[in-house]
Amino acid sequence: MSLLDRGVGRTAALYGGGLVLLAIGAFPLLWMLSTSLKPSGEIFATPPTLVPRNFTLENFARLFAETSFLMYFWNSVAVSLATVLLTLAVSVSGAYGLTRFIFPGREKVADLILVTYMFAPIMIIIPFYILVRQLGLVNTRTALVLSYTSFCLPFCLWLLRAFFEGIPSSSRRPPSSTAPAPDAPSGTLSSPSPSPASSPPASSPSSSPGTTSCSPSCSSRRRSSRRSRLG
Amino acid sequence: MRRNALAGWLLLAPSLLLIGGLIVFPILYNVWLSLFDKHSFMPVQRFVALQHYAYFARDPEFWSSVHYGLVYAGSTLILQLVLGVAAALLLNEAFRGRNLLRGIVLFPYMIPTIVAVILWKWLLNDSYGLVNHLLIAGGLVRAPLAWLGKDYIMSSLVLTSVWQFFPFVVIAYLARLQTIPPELYEAAKVDGASAWQRFAFVTLPQTWNVLFVIVLLRSIFMFTKFDTVWLMAGEGGVSRYIRTLPVYAYARTFTYLQAGMGAALAVIMFAMLLMITAVYFRVLRGSERTA
Questions:
Q1: Closest CA of chain A from B268, distance in Å
Q2: What does the pLDDT read at residue B1?
Q3: pLDDT per residue over A12-71, tens digit each?
Q4: CA distances from B150 to A100, B116, B145, B157, B237 (A)
């Protein structure tokens, strides 16, 4: 667990480093919040103020009153919900099929998933647009859901496959297995996916990358087979 | 493990259908398109075989975008790794407020790209930006720096990208750190290993696998990164100082309306990544076995 030796030096290093990390992670966002609460005159003031002198909610009021913010917001919510549901349903069953059944060609499928990642998403857009036009889906949320799914699906499949491989088949039932892998070091790994990435891999592609690392470590005895599969 | 081909394929069918239709078909169409001189929106096309590829081999704009792409991907990758691994090591130690900090560190990765870019463009604004204000107040520079001008635009882009993506490294690395048995560190301590030696001889070997995956994924993502780069400069004058390959491909397709040329660039990019990945696997898998 602990890399540093106990003592005053350790405490100073930890809290000093923690403060730096806090500044890096939170300060830009705090600045954004502060700017959003300033009247337009103060935004351009020098010297800039961290805590707004003239606190105002005018910017937020204008957002709701003068723009179609709520409609855009609803678009985002609807599209992401649909994408998560579709991706989750498809990738859970797909990854399960890839890990729990042996059949010819399944290694090829796993390789294909990785290879699709090397194609810049921006260039899939043109052929994708043509496809969408032929399906008559131009300018619909459905088209957006499909395009998001095309970006998320390979990632989720890859992560979930690694995730399922980390859970021994015997503990497959009940489906949401919370039993630690038998070869996991006791006490350090309480569930198949260690925190902070404790969300199930597919819940959203951005919150899941932690699990990539989970399974290469969860079961060391599968390591060699996985590595050969990557290539 | 069951040997049931039909069930396996049935479970995979929806994934394959979607991947086939939404990714493989577009990629194949893209390869086919790269052999044609095609207008992006009009139904005009002419077969030119490999002429686009021959053109790019002598195109200075292409080579400069390869250069910028490598500089961008390389520098962001290294900085993300250093910052991310350092942050993960810190967050693996026990101290008050650790769980809160673990959550906060993920913020930059969770906000949308457009928000991250607007935020940093605002912080780096030459007249009203906080960064210039602090630099001048601290006596580090005399006059405001044009962070978004041609001299510093690449640095600003790298800064924004590292800030946005280092949490990926943190989560991935931290998840692996937590599974290292504490006994290993205790044993090393008994043997008199210093903190640095414990990192070099316990932590690093244990995390070699996850570093391998992180470097692979981050290189691919940074090399094909479009949104952050494009939003940073758009089509503006300074954009050519950060025009990486994906942005150049976009410009060919949507600015010059040469869909065939854009497609050829995508294929070249794909081939480059495939080669780099193959070399990466060969070299590192070899060295891993001996490690």
A1: 10
A2: 56
A3: 888 999 999 999 999 998 999 999 999 888 888 777 888 888 888 999 999 999 999 999
A4: 54, 20, 11, 11, 8
The three state secondary structure string of chain A is CCCCCCCHHHHHHHHHHHHHHHHHHHHHHHHHHHHHCCCHHHHCCCCCCCCCCCCCCHHHHHHHHHCCHHHHHHHHHHHHHHHHHHHHHHHHHHHHHHHHECCCCHHHHHHHHHHHCCCCHHHHHHHHHHHHHHCCCCCCHHHHHHHHHHHHHHHHHHHHHHHHHHCCHHHHCCCCCCCCCCCCCCCCCCCCCCCCCCCCHHHCCCCCCHHHHHHHHHCHHHHHHHHHHHC
Q: Among A43, A188, A216, whose Cβ lies nearest the Cβ of B209?
A: A216
Residues A120, B266: C-beta atoms closer than 8 Å: yes
Task: Give φ, ψ of A20 to 5 degrees.
Answer: -60, -45
Whole-angstrom distance, CA of residue A55 vs CA of residue A83: 38
Cα four-point dihedral sign B67, A124, B56, B248: negative
Global model pTM greater than 0.90: no
Q: How large is the ipTM?
A: 0.81
Of these ranges, A183-187, A200-204, B76-80, the one predicted with the greatest mean pLDDT is: B76-80
Interface of A with B in 53-112 (CB under 8 A): 89-91, 93-94, 96-98, 100-104, 106, 109, 112
The pLDDT of residue A200: 42
CA B168, CA A206: separation in Å to the nearest integer?
8
The residue-averaged pLDDT of B219-229 equals 91
